[in-house]
Write a structure and sequence with these properties.
The chain has a single domain, classed as Rossmann fold, CATH 3.40.50.1950. Helices cover about 40% and strands about 20% of the residues. It contains six helices and six strands, in the order E-H-E-H-E-E-H-H-E-H-E-H. Strands 3-2-1-4-5-6 form a six-stranded parallel sheet, with helices on both faces. The termini are far apart.
Length: about 180
Amino acid sequence: MKRFILAITGASGVCYAKRLFDVLQPLAELHVVLSERGVELLKLELDLSPSYFKKENATVYKNSKINTSIASGSFKTDGMVIVPASMGTVGRIAAGISSSLVERAADVVLKEKGKLIIVPREAPFSTIHLKNMLALDQAGGLILPANPGFYNNPKSVGDLVDFVVARILDQLGVDQGIVPPYSA
């Protein structure tokens, strides 16, 4: 069974994290971390609490609890996804600051040459945002903006969310049947 870390930070777009969790939960061991602002947005945008993620194959951590297994290089993972990724979180990880569990886990994934997928949901990007994302890309992270495609003729917001989640799953190497590949 694959093992993934899912981090939810304080940017709008927690629907992406929820959908990713729902798809991965029956297939993988999940380790979920929510920032304080991520918890607020989960309530605001979806009327959910962190207890939603307390399901089979899933462990939920407090962002303030840095002394956990996922903060160690000995914790082997098949990838970490930060979705949605706030620009504050992106900046701190790019600067090597590990003052929270999300930041420390991401730092560990990068130093261990693992797969770190960062899904920013911000517009427009400032020069500082772009430089921070470039630094993370150069350090081995993958920047996957929450930009849905429209060539598959989406019929609902759920279709738009699925497009982005399918791209994340593709990058994680997880077979997904939610969005068919593009064909001309």
